[in-house]
Amino acid sequence: MIWLVLGLCAASAVAILLWPLLRVREAAPDRALYDVALYRAQLAEIERDRARGALDEKGHAAALLEVQRRLLAASAGADDAAAPRAEGQGVAGRWVLLLAGLLVPVLALAIYLPAGSPDLPAMPLAERRAAEQRAEAEAETLLAALRARLAQLPPDSAQALEGWLLLGAAERRRERFAAAAEAFGRAHAIRPDPDIGTDWAEMLIADADGRVPEQARALLRAAQAARASGPGSERARFYLGLAAMQAGDPAAALGFWRPLLQEAPAEAPWLALLRQRIAEAEAALAGAGGAGAARPAAPASGPSPEQMAAAAAMPAEQRAAMIGMMVEGLAARLRETPDDVEGWQRLARARLVLREGRAAREAAMRARALRPAEIEPYALEAEALAQIAAGSAPPSELLGLMRAALALPGAEDDRRLLWYGALAEAEHGDRARARTLFTTLLARTDADSPLHAEARRRLEALAP
Q1: pTM across the whole model
Q2: Which of 69, 127, 200, 291 has the most crowded CB, counting CB atoms within 10 A?
Q3: In this structure, what DSSP letter does residue 302 have?
Q4: Which CATH class is domain 163-264+271-287?
Q5: Burial class for 161, CB neighbours closer than 10 Å (0-12, 13-18, 19+)
Q6: How do residues 240-265 score in pLDDT, each as one tens digit?
């Protein structure tokens, strides 16, 4: 029955399209034939005017001559038009279109039948959503059963290890990173394997929105130590480089990433991301004068990483000119789109690379005005103020800025805010508060990083 309905629908559609072609229409008379008839009528009118005395001999001769001239010209183009048209003219073209119209549904049917599924039942949106909800409920039931089974198994058994690994993988696929981290952590407690430790660290990083927490760094360092630089260490080395970048040490990040790039197979799917990270680290290192200073700031990324990497290979004057040109282009675009928060933040970072502290602060303030509840604009403005101070005491504006920033949710997890907040409190505010901030910063930094050493030195100098 369904094929009959589909056939009728196809036939109706083809008939509607081809009906104009099947109609036999008489050809419209040629324009020259109308002109000949008109001029002949004018000749008769001229003769009647002469008979009534409306035209004298001279006027009659002139009018007759002009109309006869036009009649001769029109008659030359009307000879073929006056003859009957060939009956078959245009028929071949109509048949070609007719055959094409009939072949379309036939070809569609021939293509569909081998690969199509005409008997597949329909599934409306409501049914699909219901099926997805059932699948979700079934998955939750299975995971609950797995957790119940794990609670009954001996904690250190091989079955418990397999169960925790299975649970961690399932939670990772569902993007429930905190639950996945807990499962991999339980598995790692049973068997401290480097791969399990890296999985655990990866979930901790994902749960922290890309930041590398201290616990994850310890796991990654242990995984790298176990595998050195051989196969299986790639993830650990990548994330250790990311941790170094987040700590403001691009030189250390390149120490992880450059060898990894040389050893990576050409078909590795993560090569593009690794190259982008290397370009960002090289640009940040070039912006810091090549010294790799451990300042607690995010890597500058005003222009694209590829452009910054190209600039890093240039002499200092050419590099400054190239980056300056790209930054001015970004600034010009932001004048047309002043609500682009990410654009203002990129501009602030690029100005910091160029050591243009005041312009960087202005861009950061524009971003902060658009999103006053976000941490990043505060951190960029703090770095700009520190750059303006150029090694002298932090300016008084930094104190109020950092107090407002550190009141935001999650701010005390940002090393830059802790660093600048502690500096400002020590210089202009509460030394006890400064000690608290330095202590918190030490707890959130790698013990062998330059930032950790500097924060400890300043904390000891504040001892009562």
Answers
A1: 0.41
A2: 200
A3: S
A4: mainly alpha
A5: buried
A6: 999 888 888 888 888 888 888 888 77
